[in-house]
Amino acid sequence: MSSSWRRTLGNARSFVNNSMGGLRGGSNLASWVVAGTLAYFLWIKPSQDLKREQQEKAALASSDSYRYVETRKPVPDPQVTGLIYGNNNKDNSNRTQD
């Protein structure tokens, strides 16, 4: 009876060791540490930072709507900047005569 669970445990250990690429000992542990560190800094940390930034922005926007300032600049009108030719600044002449 006791040999049955030992055999099962041994089979499980063999399966885990074989699934890890056959590396044993320190090199196996070192490769997993390197892979885990790379995964953390390339995938996990950026997604956590983005989520935290979005939560902070949402909390700030909901707490005081007048205090929240969008950090992106508005896109200028190409007609006013002269990128599109035609009736340049036609409407602005009426506004400046206030």
Descriptive notes:
The chain has 98 residues and is an all-alpha fold. The chain is built from four helices and no strands. It has helices at 2-19, 26-63, 78-81, 90-95. It is elongated. The termini are far apart. The model has no long low-confidence stretch (mean pLDDT 76). Keywords: Membrane, Transmembrane, Transmembrane helix. The chain crosses the membrane at residues 25-44. Residues 61-98 are annotated as: Disordered.
Contiguous uncertain segments of 5+ residues: none
What's the end-to-end separation, in Å? 99 Å
Task: Indicate the percent of residues in helices.
Answer: 55-70%
Mean pLDDT: 76
User: What radius of gyration results from the CA coordinates?
Assistant: 31 Å
Q: What is the overall silhouette?
A: elongated
Keywords: Membrane, Transmembrane, Transmembrane helix
Region (Disordered): 61-98
Transmembrane segments: 25-44
Biased composition (Polar residues): 86-98
What's a quick, concise take on this entry?
The protein has 98 residues and is an all-alpha fold. It has four helices and no strands.
Keywords:
single chain, 98 residues, mainly alpha, 4 helices, membrane
Q: How does the SSE layout of this entry go?
A:
Elements: H1 2-19, H2 26-63, H3 78-81, H4 90-95
